[in-house]
Specification:
Layout (H helix, E strand, L loop, with lengths): L6 E6 L4 H4 L14 E3 L28 H6 L6 E4 L8 H13 L4 E5 L11 H13 L2 E4 L2 H11 L4 E2 L8 H10 L7 E6 L10 H11 L5 E8 H4 L8 H6 L6 E5 L4 H9 L3 E3 L9 H9 L2 E5 L4 H4 L3 E3 L9 H13 L4 H33 L9
Parallel strand pairs: 1-2, 1-3, 3-4, 4-5, 5-6, 7-8, 7-10, 8-9, 10-11, 11-12
Organism: Sediminivirga luteola
Protein name: D-inositol 3-phosphate glycosyltransferase
Length: 380
């Protein structure tokens, strides 16, 4: 190992909140130094051999280059891929996995997405998975549903390791104490962001508007980024922009939220709606759980296994079933959240869960390094 007693991981990425929360905070456990993840290299390069941290900028990931693997082979023990390979061709990913094999570096892949939420056409992502999943020495995923799909499609077993908390523990505690929800309202939030490929905009606005209007105290808050509602925006959508000017909606147009703004936004909602036509897992859902906001999600992918509070449906053609949206929201409104009473216990559980998730990763890493790349590959 690169340093006695520690495991050094080349993680793609390492600065993302999900990956950061795979380790135990030293402030909580001073002895938690067993796993070290290299900082994300500067995507713009630097002097040869540099691993200058990218900070918040980790895209495009330099670690996906085979030459990076070879140049830095003495600086890491194993390679763990999460996401960030959207722009890589299957051949480029095949070259990466071959470089890892040649250098004797175990390859771990956590399958976050079985369908890329940014791609209307699933073909490229499917071809990428056809390279990565068979090549991995160890597979992880976030839900039993996804593990079942991986075994069905590729004949590989994936360890199910839950998503850790997204909101930091101190912020969870502060938001639980502040309680930003108006008890006289039933505020339903729909955030269109920048209308990525898997989002259903106007059909979801229409269904929610009708449903919320039947609930006492119901308010539909629709948030959107400026780039889809302003005419000079990079993703301007005139139909959506026009719909958001209708009366009866509480519309908030803004740029990307900073973390503290995002968490406060979620904490002010009674329900957050995931308006997805396709997808697999959701960090947004996990953030809602962290602040006690219930989630209405589509009945697809792993959202139910992740803990969505209610589900809506689509018909065989993919058309939104507005009646299922209405029924789900009415059921949520009729069952008030128990969050204020259970917040402290939930937050304590999230802290414990993070330690358990970190321990699972360390055990998997050590097992691979003790056995050698290729010797612990899971079969179906």
């Amino acid at each position: 190992m690169t340093t006695p007693g520690t495991i050094t991981v080349a993680s793609v990425p390492s600065s993302h909140v999900y990956v950061r929360h795979l380790s135990v905070q030293r402030a909580i456990d001073p002895a938690a130094t067993e796993v070290v993840r290299l900082p994300d290299p500067d995507p713009d390069g630097g002097h040869p051999g540099s691993i200058r941290p990218a900070g918040a900028r980790w895209w495009p990931p330099a670690m996906l280059e085979p030459h990076w693997v070879r140049e830095h082979r003495h600086e890491f023990d194993l390679f763990h891929l999460h996401f960030g390979f959207d722009a890589r061709t299957p051949d480029q990913l095949r070259a990466l996995t071959q470089a890892l094999r040649e250098e004797g570096k175990p390859f771990v892949y956590t399958v976050h997405d079985l369908r890329n939420p940014h791609h209307e056409d699933p073909a490229l992502h499917a071809a990428q998975l056809d390279v990565l999943i068979p090549a991995a020495d160890r597979l992880l995923t976030l839900t039993p549903w996804a593990a079942g799909e991986i075994e069905r499609r590729w004949g590989r077993r994936a360890d199910v390791v839950s998503h850790p908390h997204v909101v930091d523990i101190l912020t969870m505690r502060r938001l639980a104490e502040d309680e930003l929800r108006d008890p006289g309202e039933f505020r339903v939030g729909l955030h269109l962001k920048s209308l990525r490929a898997n989002m259903d905009g106007i059909p979801m606005i229409d269904a929610l508007s009708e449903a919320v209007g039947t609930i006492p105290g119901g308010v539909l808050q629709v948030n959107a980024h400026r780039d889809i509602v302003e005419e000079d925006g990079a993703r301007y959508d005139p139909e959506v922009a026009s719909r958001l000017r209708d009366e009866g909606l509480d519309v908030r147009v803004h740029d990307f939220f900073r973390d503290e703004e995002f968490f406060a936004y979620l904490a002010g909602l009674h329900v957050s709606v995931l308006p997805y036509r396709f997808g697999t897992h959701s960090g947004w859902l996990e953030a809602c759980r962290d602040v006690g906001t219930r989630v209405l999600a589509p009945a697809l992918g792993g959202y139910a296994d992740q803990g969505a509070d209610a589900l809506y449906h689509r018909d065989a053609t993919g058309r939104l079933d507005a009646g299922s949206v209405r029924e789900a929201l009415r059921a949520l409104a009729a069952a008030p959240s128990a969050w204020p009473a259970r917040a402290a216990g939930h937050i304590a559980w999230r802290a414990r869960q993070r330690g358990e998730i970190a321990a699972v990763h360390e055990r998997i890493y050590r097992g691979l390094l003790e056995r050698g790349a290729g010797d612990e590959r899971q079969a179906g």
